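Collaborator request, handled under Task 6.
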Amino acid sequence: MATENKNLSEYDKTTIPNAKNFRFGIVVSEWNENITEGLFKGAFDAFIDCGALKENIVRWNVPGSFELIYGCKKMQQSYDMLDAVIAIGSVIQGETKHFDFVCDGVTQGIKDLNISSDIPVIFCVLTDNNMQQSIDRSGGKHGNKGTEAAIAAIKMAQLRKEAKF
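Structure tokens returned to the collaborator:
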């Protein structure tokens, strides 16, 4: 496993830009809420730890992971001043191919948003084989993928700022 020897919550704060002047959006799936709330907490806490102001973090909820695409698109359009958006979701393998279709659709949809918009969307959707893997990556033994997503969002916000002419 890629996360077996890595703690998703670890980062070197000295290498992260100060997030004080950035605005972030977080779109959170309500499906597998016990997992997505843990991911949200990891992202929110990392933003605050890196200097972001609470009032500069916008949260929207959507019913499931497939709806993250629309939610992120609307957030990009509604908040011109956002510097990055995080899509938080959790899809756990079941007995049908539904898992494959949702995972592929969400992945491609978020990729498309990154191609079509100037506001980066960070992929924070767990695609695990079972609930325990999701627990381990949303604040459990492997740390928190939400934390990792927030650090990626800060770095992408800085890149976006520096790349403007």
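The cover message to the collaborator said: "Helices lie at 33-49, 68-78, 98-116, 131-137, 145-163. DSSP finds five helices and six strands in the chain. Please let us know whether this matches your experimental observations."
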